[in-house]
Amino acid sequence: MDRRYESCRAVLDTFSNAVSRSKVLFSDECAIYRSARDGNVVFWSKENPNFTQELGHNPPHVMIWAGMTSDYLIGPYFSDGAVNAPSYSAVLETWLIPQLRRQRTPG
Questions:
Q1: Is-contact 60 34, C-beta < 8 A?
Q2: Contact predicate 103/93, CB 8 Å
Q3: Quick one: CA dihedral 87, 89, 93, 98, positive or negative?
Q4: pLDDT beneath 50: ranges in the chain
Q5: Distance of alpha carbon 49 from its chain centroid, rounded?
Q6: Which of 25, 11, 39 minimizes the C-alpha distance to 68?
Q7: For the purposes of burial, counting CB atoms within 10 Å of the CB of 95, is it exposed (0-12), middle (13-18) or buried (19 or more)?
Q8: 65 Cβ contact partners less than 8 Å away, ≥ 6 residues apart
Q9: Model pTM greater than 0.70?
Q10: Rounded to whole angstroms, what are the CA distances from 30 to 9, 65, 76, 84?
Q11: How many Cα atoms within 13 Å fall on the side-chain side of residue 48?
């Protein structure tokens, strides 16, 4: 967590002023897999980072996306199924850009 904070701080410090920094959007996504654990599921553990168990091909899941600027949080956005270039572009155009415009419009 400290390294992430320092990395974000370093990126923000490259901008000359607060107005420029407010235009930076950090985002991340996560896949949540639906499983009764009767198939293969990937596990990761801080205590045992070498333990893995692979997922089967294209298991059912939900993608969750969220973002943040220096002023506000955006999301979460839930997407059921695979995310590819066309579906991600559609999310940006039909959901994210309108969200950003609403945040920047006063009142």
A1: yes
A2: no
A3: positive
A4: none
A5: 22
A6: 25
A7: middle
A8: 27, 28, 29, 75, 76, 77, 79, 91
A9: no
A10: 23, 7, 11, 14
A11: 5
